[in-house]
Predict the 3D structure of the following.
Amino acid sequence: MLDKKVIELLNDQINKEFYSAYLYLDIANYYTKNDLDGFANWYTIQAQEERDHALLFLKYLQINSIPVELKAIDKPDKTFSNHLDPLLAGAEHERYVTSLIHNIYDAAYSVKDFRTMQFLDWFVKEQMEEEENADKMVNKYKLFGDDPKSLYLLDQELAARVYTAPSLVL
Ligand code: FEO
């Protein structure tokens, strides 16, 4: 049986990951509306990854015979007034998610819950990649976004992203 606080945080993380998927779908919608289909593709795939993260937390609780409580997902409430805003929102959000993962890790560590710590190891590494990718999006846009031809090529590059299932299998 897992610790009550750890269970609560793991259960909450299901909701947070689904919210991340919602936020990225909202960002994809912004870019679709603005005819940047490559950016929209990149964030649609990002939303699929977040759904996968949510399902991993759900499955981990199920495997440990913990009842899962699905809660209401908040409406994404960011407003975007230019093409850079969604990228900045994405980068900021990933840092927030990193803090959530670290918080669960801290709770598991405090009760010597080695099983949950090992499960979370994948997410600790994943968050390093998520922050790196989000920062790259911001930096590339800052470098190329003001020039229409470069923006077109960047959009083409992002259109090539394809979905891959998470490497973590439970
Ligand atoms: Fe589920 Fe983007 O971290």
User: Anything to note?
Assistant: The chain has a mean pLDDT of 97. The pocket of MU-OXO-diiron is lined by residues 17, 20, 50, 53, 94, 97, 130 (CB under 6 Å). The domain at 4-70+88-159 is CATH 1.20.1260.10 (Ferritin). The chain has five helices and no strands.
